[in-house]
Amino acid sequence: LKGSRSITCQSNGSWSAASPTCVHLGKNCPDPGRPRNGDVKGLFGFGEKIYYTCDECYELKGPADRQCQADEKWTGTQPTCESVKCSFLQNPANGYVTSNSQQCNNTVQYHCDCGYRLNGSPRRRCQRNGMWTGNEPVCKLKICQDPGTPRRGSKKGNLQVGQTLYYSCDQCYQLRGSPNRTCQCDLSWSGRQPICTAVRCSGLRHPTNGRITEYSRYCGRKQTQFLCYSGYQLRGSRTITCQSDGSWSAVSPTCVEKSCPEPESQKNGIVKGLYSPFRIGEKIYYSCDQCYKLIGPANRQCQADERWTATQPTCEPVTCSLLQYPVNGYLTFNSQQCNSIVQYNCWYGYQLNGSPKRRCQGNGTWTGNEPVCELNSCQDPGTPWRGNKKGILQVGKTLHFSCDQCYQLKGSPNRTCQSDHSWSGRQPTCTAVRCSELHHPTNGRIIAYSRYCGRKQTEFLCYSGYQLRGSRRITCQSDGSWSAASPTCV
């Protein structure tokens, strides 16, 4: 029997239990075991069913029930209980999520960046059905309260958190306080609220020998005017104004005794005289620096009309006359400027007679006199007796010596005039050419004899019974050799 053996009809007209059934008594199926993180319920007999459930935050994967078959095996396969997970949550725009876990029953917290506030639930929980509770909140921009605009001023910018307001004041007003204020995360403004106050310049006093006729220290108001007493004139601006930066448009003028204006400085010179003020009748004197000459009046006088006589002179550079090259020479650094120095030089073979340097003086003349280039020569060494020479005596030049016929040169045939005015080599001489000595021939004799070139001939004679073989007469020649060999007597 499967079910209640006895049942009763109840007062509501229903049975106390369902009618029982009679089932076949076969073998039982084995215990299938509980799934991890789950449970199983039911009987293990033939035809019986078992039912699977999972713990909270786990879901069943596989059949929810299985039946015991006649072969003592369960239908289907053993199911499993797997952890329930929710979808991954993204950070909201201008915000972020903390504890962002996808596990069942886990709670996440929503936050907004500085300057934004959360609209919606700040928390959501992962449910056992894999869905998050609630809806995704959003971060909306926050703004600070408008701090207002200062009187006589303006501001630029917006009221959002992190943004800055820029303050400025109207013309002739100055800002006191913070020129820039930023909307902070706590919706308060940084700095101190500025104000615009009227610009006021420093106080002025009446000038000596004069007074102020109109006066206002505030920017944008009327001008301040000055007046000098009789006999004095205003030096500076007659009217000045207080400007937007708190300064006067010009310095306060002064009242000075009437005089000529201060003369211009003298370029390349100086102005001498009384110091300012330059009263009527006073004189100033001009002079020039060294190497400059004055062109114009040397002095000027202050006249009754507060003007100087004549015009301002000038100081012009002093120059000397252009120097010409010396004959047989040249110049180096040939400048005409004052204090410049020129160098005189002579060509080779010439020597300078006079100062080699001249300087251009402040009066426009050259120092000294112009030197000249004279021929640079050696003393005449003379001409050897019975000889002659060719050439000139100038430094670097050479004399060539030679001798007359039948004379030979002893010494240097060429001599050069050196830079120290001495001659190279040794002075030559001309000596008579003499041939070698002759002897009487065997069986004969010399009847006329001269060993010197250009003299008489040498004559030979043989004794009786002998005759001369060779030249009867021979002559000593200019090269020191005989005109023929000595004859013999045979």
UniProtKB/TrEMBL annotation:
CDD domains: CCP. Pfam families: Sushi (PF00084). The keyword Metal-binding does not apply. Keywords: Disulfide bond, Glycoprotein, Repeat, Signal, Sushi. InterPro entries: Sushi/SCR/CCP_sf, Sushi_SCR_CCP_dom. Disulfide bonds join 54-81, 112-139, 169-196, 228-255, 288-315, 346-373, 403-430, 462-489. This is Sushi, von Willebrand factor type A, EGF and pentraxin domain-containing 1-like.
